[in-house]
Amino acid sequence: MQDDERSRPSPAQPDDRSRDDSRPAQSERRRFRRETTPTDEQPAPPPALQPLRFSTRDLEPAQQFAAWQSYVAPLVDVRRPDNSPPDAGFGAEHAAWNLGGMLIIQQSTPAHSYSRSEAKVRSSPIDHWHISVLRNGRTWTEVGGHVSEGEPGKVELRTLGHPFRGRSTDAKTLSLYLPRELLHPASTEIRNNIALSGTRAKLLIDYLDGVEAKLAQLAEADLPHVVQTIRDMILTSVSSSPASAEPHNSLALKERVYRFVQHNLMSPDLTTDRLCRELGVSRTRLYQAFEPDGGVHHYIQRRRLLAAHAALSDTANRQQIVDIAFAAGFSSAAHFSRAFSKEFGYSPREARNVAMPSYLGHPVEPVSEAESAQSFDKWLRTLGHLRRA
Length: 389
What we know:
- The protein is α+β, with helices and mostly antiparallel strands.
- It has two domains: about 50-245, Sandwich (Jelly Rolls); about 250-375, Homeodomain-like (Arc Repressor Mutant, subunit A, Orthogonal Bundle).
- It contains 14 helices and twelve strands.
- The chain has helices spanning about 1-5, 10-30, 60-70, 120-125, 200-215, 225-240, 250-265, 270-280, 285-290, 295-315, 320-325, 335-345, 350-355, 370-380, and strands at about 50-55, 75-80, 95-100, 105-110, 110-115, 130-135, 140-145, 145-150, 155-160, 165-170, 170-180, 195.
- A hairpin with a 2-residue loop joins strand 7 and strand 8 (about 145-150).
- InterPro entries: AraC_XylS_family_regulators, Homeodomain-like_sf, HTH_AraC, HTH_AraC-typ_CS, Tscrpt_reg_AraC-type_HTH.
- This is Transcriptional activator NphR.
């Protein structure tokens, strides 16, 4: 009986044991504190872009097509379908977003035909790459006898530096305009007027869908990353496309010449003989390829003038005009001024005075048809050379 009483715990022992067991639990609770939601979160950066919008829908039906013709004139000449009445409406919409190194265009148009003539190519400083994705509708575009067919699910790629012509059904399109330099790494050959398809093209379209949905929310810090990602995805799609491996023709030769000339603009011996030697092409073939451009010498001079025009249009470039001329490969300021005025129809000083202001977006304000067309034209001319102050 006494042994039983000795082995039985006293009434206080369970309480002590319970108290001892609770201490580690309390310690654990103190070690893992409850997360609190901060009340001083940083606000999201403000959106960097505002679109430049143009629409014919608010005009009288008889005026709509002429307004659209004027708006797209810096790029292409357009015509109605042959069976379309001349006073029929032409409800078209265009929204341009300027990312600094790239333009993104949302466009909706009725059926029409379009062309970029040899004369327009020669008279225009615009020779960017144009990438288009159809949301609906179909297009047929011919360059040098080759027709590329556009439809949803494909990515079309062509340069504005060569003539083309085509036609479109009623269509909604997402387009990109990229400076040629952006798609010209030395190791990549890009054929003109090709339609990309397959898995990588689909991934590019999916990414463009996401960018389009977020255009109004993009911050300034996002823009270089978006441009770089799109550029890399385009090059990946091109490198995986069978069209990029087809035999060279005169257009492909021009692309090779373009890259070589662009990398050697300041070289004093940038001559026909050097081009033939470096590119492994005969003088006859080179002359034939550049005969529509007024010859090889004129082509080289035009590339130098385009480089100078881009520098003059860059509001961050504080160089003297004569220094820009020398940097573009001209040995005489007087010769540069005469050639520039003949090529573009205005002087180098005028080109600098009308350069675009250093913003990426454009205020959404009512503007006249002429003002809208002029602003879009400026965006195209200065693409890749806009910088914020």
